[in-house]
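hey all, quick one before standup. I had two proteins in the batch that finished overnight and I want to keep them in one place so we stop losing track of which output belongs to which input. First protein below, input sequence then structure tokens straight from the run.
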Amino acid sequence: MPKKEATTDLWVYDLLKEANIHLDPQGSSIKEIDQALKTASKSGKGNVGFPEYCGVVGDFLLVIEDKASLANHIYRNDKDLIDLDPKYTRAYAVNGAYHYALHLAANTSYHRVFAFGVSGDEKHHRITPLFVNERGDKTELPDVETFISFSEQNIIEYYHRNVLHEETDTEKATAEVIRDARTLHEDLRTYGSIKDQDKPLIVSGIMLALREIEHKNFAIDNLNGDSLHTDGEKIYNAIESNLKRANVTPDTKRDKILSQFAVIKDTAKINEPEPSLQKTPLRHYTEFLYNHIFKSVKFHQSAEDYIGLFYGEFMSYSGGDGQSLGIVLTPKHITTLFCDLLALKPTDRVLDPCCGTGGFLIAAMHHMLQQATSDAQRRSIRRDQLFGFELQPYMFTIATTNMILRGDGKSNLNPWDFLKQNPAELQQKQCTVGMMNPPYSQGTKADPSQYEINFTEHLLNSMVEGGRVAVIVPQSSFTGKTREEQAIKQSILKHHTLEGVITLNKETFYRVGTNPCIAVFTAGIPHSKDHVCRFINFEDDGFEVSKHIGLVETPSARDKRQHLLDVWRGAEAPSRFCVRTTIEPDDEWLHAFYYFNDEIPTEADFERTMADYLTFEFNMLTHGRGYLFEKGDEQ
């Protein structure tokens, strides 16, 4: 085996190991597959033939053929078909993998085969999957960066989404939640004329009241439109009971939260019977939430934040998303990404000083709980290791409710103005991880304290030495447009270390019009001039805008996320994806500032360029403009 190809084999082995996929090299430990390979030679003469890797994941057979050079990735004939002539199956990765897939699908009991042609190395490569069935039908699939989609946990979902083109259970559930949220939003407007800011309060208040059903302190059937003891009062009383049951303390904090829910009992229109409903709007909303949302939240304790989806949908309507206050709610795929980028551990203490509806803290709580090894550690995570501040009263109320509904963790939420807190005092909380999505576009030269980068520095100053911090902010935060922002950048590097910046999809905050990025820091350790930072272009993250739905996850998102994490943790990548470099305070801390093209053109690139030039010259000649190519008079 050529030395370069052996290097590719080892790199592929590492990718498989990362995805927890165990395949056999140069053969198979499964008897019927090994027997079939004895007649699988690429020459077509019935001799033995071995792909680089072969094995079974679930009910699927995986086969991998690799080549060291990108030039040997795939060969198509003049009909644009993958050519199965032996000279091409021997020379090209995809062609060889396709050959083995056809042979094994026809000669074993494994009739669902994923074949992979892999070429190149860790930095410059292609991984092209194909699906082949026992009839020889082939489905060509988009290139991937990792094998994570083909692990035991993910391969069924990948098959249904990419081969069968069916919706997965998660996609169906998400679509249902979004439809339900829109329906309830319309009903809140139609039957209650509820202000945008009050809509999520009514939803979260009813959800808290529903928790009292199991304690016999609340029953939907008791919502009967009584004018003496209104439906709103019954719900309000149930909310008060549940806040006490959840041990929301001190009393002043509980009273502050409860006051936000007064809208439920004080809004006359939703407490009066609606003729078209034959019940009060409040009972209608309560029945709807119980049947469509409460059961899901109660019985599906996973990272999928159903109530968060509801809030996000409500707040996407005019004025309800808090944009006038600079509040931009963070999507779930970003909150969970933070946990991976910061390598969150069950022993960490997490601070989100601008917690909004609690998305980061919920993601952190679930991430830490999944790693916990004892009930005592799980109790500590919920009770002692999550800290959040939220200045806006209605947002603070929603965050507290959200945390209660998603499994506690609300005891250290406080309605504080983060910028007014003394960082030295906050350090005493011994927080090791900071996560933040600060208010956007509030800073001015007259009030530079509201710049996103000032929030960032304040958070860094509030962490223990060596603490890990990630923030999501507009890209403009790191260009240093004003003298004040430039001074803050210099101050940050004087006391803290920038680890890297990830440029995100421009649609991450759908309908907000912000181009965001994630910056990761180590707190309390001055930035060395020799420290190498990572600047990554992750605009192509596998999420796209779907009409009438918003930002949705495509089948490639999981693979792209894994590739991002691999590169963040040290894997090689071309400079169009990642640049590693030292920095200066005056630099624009963005991938676009440091990018350079390090990709050597291939022979195919040269041929395409020459073909384009010759086509252009021919067109000019046929249009009477041949003089463009005549040499000038020699001097």
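OK second protein, same deal, sequence then tokens:
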Amino acid sequence: MTGFGVARVAIDSPLPALDRLFDYEIADGLRGNIAIGSRVRVPFGRSAGLSDGFVVELVETSEFKGKLASLDEVVSSVSVLAPEIYSLCRAVADRQAVTIADVFKLAIPTRSVAVEKKWQSAMADVAVLPINRIEPSKPAGNRSFAFIEPRTNEYGPIWVQQLANRAEAALQAGQSTILVVPDFRDQAVILENLRGKLGEASLTQLVDYTSQQTNSLRYAAFLRCLTGEPAIVVGSRAALYAPVANLGEIIIWDDGDSNLQEPTSPYTNARDVALIRQSQSGCNLLFTSHARSCEVERLVEIGYLKDISIPFAVPKLAISEASARVDSLAWQTIRRALDQDDAVLVQVASRGQSVSVYCGGCAERAKCANCAGPLWVDSQGQPRCRWCNANNLAFSCTNCGNRTLKQGRAGATRTTAEFGKAFAGTKIIESNGDNRLESVPAGKKIVVSTPEAEPRIEGGYGAVILLDCNEMLSRDNLRASEDAVRIWSNTIALMKPGGLAVAVGLQGFLGQKLALWSQAEISRHEYHSRAELRFPPFIRMASLAGERDLLAKVLEALPADIEILGPMPLTGKGAAVDDWRALIRYEYSQGASLAATLKAQVLLATAGAKRVSAKSGRAQRPIQIKMDTVI
């Protein structure tokens, strides 16, 4: 590389004005020793300090006519930003109308000097293989979706076994697999399964990319991917940026899980990042789950994904339309399973003693003295606010002044107590968001759990009872039905072969189709319902939030064929007095041009503007852009 005198550097800065490559003259002492992907520190503008960055390109000369600043500090000689990962980060940033630095924080873990030195020492006598890049001229890989049998046997969940087998087969063929699993408990189960399959000799080929690890372990996993040897990478959202060699397939399990949605900028969903990486690399892409999300349903209907599901035996599911919270069918099913010394899983919609409370005098809904939010009773028997979480021990009704409370529908804690009285002598276990159990020992027992806190049990449950189905469907969310079906399906999948599930209070179309396990029809119906109203994912919907005057400047500059809803005042936690929000509905074909326009117009409108969070005191962007709003 001695002929390269200029380095093109991507500066790791959230400032939109710096979101491009800058040319630097390489100092004489570094020529031949600097590589693409290296971490560097470079001078910029009039700042006395140095800015962090990554070398993206090395060229002989620069097209810039002025005098170039000198690059004379290399933080590390390790090439941590592979060209393929830079291309992925650039594409994600352009799609989401954010800076590439917002994506770098997901793609490149925090550096650990000790781990890096240890890795360099171990690799000193080993030739680091280049990451194989599949040329765009090669045919694209397969893009598919598959339903997996919702069942647990003596070896664990069927979906874990099938995905682990698929990844192991790819590894034996010399290809890497990225396995994206949203829940940390599911990640642990699939890692355990793969460790058992691969054995001690091949454990270095299994990379734990989960977010529960310390920074040093995450950086060690990242460096392992840079060796150029094929691997199986298991993790959540960030695993999609793993710089593995010869990527053969990306597998995403349960893409409808909200854990796969990035909560901060760039606000990406793992599904979209996977689609981008697949299109760039040409690898295979597989979405798989027990229930299909509307986004995947859309991709199946337009022919972008192929449904490769294999027929399987559907689980036994009885639908009960009774008005009683726990009807006779549910009681009989529980007793039958306990008589056979099986465990029973009972899912309830909410935690605590009572989902809601009312004034003991006038029966008005009890409200928080701090924010007027609705009260509920937690597992300790204390009234708390659902909005601000404040205790309301000195409750006084604003309507009649009464200080007594009357509890409403039972939560998980009260349900546990009620089952304890009904089934005397049977062990009762509660698992909820405050005390989430990963697993329980096999044997006769009743487990009461809130959604997505269900513990696993060896061999599976003998019966699964779904309570509060109407409550799950009536939540104030466009995705209430979709989320409920996904949660119920995953819960039923914890049942052993021959077990029986009962859904209490589930009626109509949804109850009929779920009983027949017609998941494709359910997702198709849900997607078409949204299409009629022009809601996502039939179209895309962006949101802009910021001060009203700045927001107006940006909205005025948008093309006439873009549909704008609002703006309206923004209320809620953290919102300033003059904060407004606008929604933008647009077609998928308009995404690239709209993102570029928004990014440019926000930069123009907010030049010199500053915004500081009243809560944290940290600097914030004057206008927040979300290209895909979750509603």
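Flagging for whoever picks this up: Residues 129-137, 612-617 have pLDDT under 50 and may be disordered. DSSP finds 16 helices and 33 strands in the chain.
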